[in-house]
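Query form — protein Transmembrane 9 superfamily member

QUESTION: What is the three-dimensional structure of this chain?
INPUT:
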Amino acid sequence: MQNRSIVSSCVLILTLNLIERVAGFYVPGVAPVEFSKGQVIEVKAVKMTSTHTQLPYEYYSLPFCRPKNNTIVYKSENLGEVLRGDRIVSTAYEVKMATAQSCKVLCHDPYKPMLWSEEESKLVASRIQHHYYVHLIVDNLPCATRFEMLDTNQPQYEHGYRLGFIEDGTPYINNHLKLILKYHTEDGINFRVVGFEVVTKSIAFSDLTFDGNSCTFPEKPKKQEINLQDNTEILFTYEVLWEASDIRWASRWDTYLAMSDAQIHWFSIINSVVVIFFLSGILTMIIIRTLRRDIARYNKDEDMEDTMEETGWKLVHGDVFRPPLHPKLFAAVVGTGIQLFFMTFITIFFAMLGMLSPASRGALMTVAIFLFVFMGLFAGYFSGRMYRTLRGNQWKKSAFLVSLY
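ANSWER: The structure tokens for Transmembrane 9 superfamily member are given below.
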């Protein structure tokens, strides 16, 4: 008994020790990053996207300001990020933790603006016409643009910031960014980034006033027009504003997860659902009436069953268990369906457990592709099993055929 109590005590101590270790465990790449005040924080660009074209572009596909010495650093990416079109690159923005920055020129000499050629100007104008958004990240947290709904006056957020806008047929670019960053700290020494908003503004070069590398502009400046007939003189500027926040690091993604898509066409969705149910009801009534009529005729003519020719639903019962003309093809299609079903089910299950965090960019697609390949084993097994059930002799070829569909 004494030995058992000693063993039980050892097991209890070991269990408590493991619990303490697990309490401090973080998934690699998802652990919080702490910064000290004044520490440099990288601002990276992900890509440019549009809901009108569904075609992403790299950040530097347009003539934006490049970092010092023209050194562009690309971040290594996983398979899911590559398939999503993400190309995470460094930018020329200089941001320091909990340190506000007034209007500052992003790159180049303040007195010598960038010159976009006619071709470059038309390219930027084309992206603006297609409503492209630019996506930036700070500490793996994407930027968001805040706006208010007219009917509810509730604040809403959308991913990224708009590249520009069009007024009276003239394209304008948002060349000034106000980066609003939020931090959370417990001890006043270690800071964590918990929010990233962007406020855009279009400011013509002629309305900018410079003092060294700093700049000022009037409250209502002229907008930066894109000249489609000649070179465009433009200068990119930015400012940084830090705000203390009670949001903890673990909850910093709540704002993005609660984003609502204002482009959801609820009327069309409801209309489609109603039509589907209506047509399903009509087909169900027709089938039931036909089946009842056939059954009533069969029961009436039971005495003449041997001489009566089979009609109606009796013609179906002979085809239910009859092997199809192409059993290999049928078994391969069923196996592929099982493969897709299990891939979708397991992916959704892991997502429900919270293991596919949105902070792990591209993880969802990577897991889905891995599961699709792995589930090919089960698809081949079920395909060969069904082919043998249909009395086939070449079940190996049937299992191999699944990989070709």
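ADDITIONAL NOTE: The longest strand covers residues 191-201.
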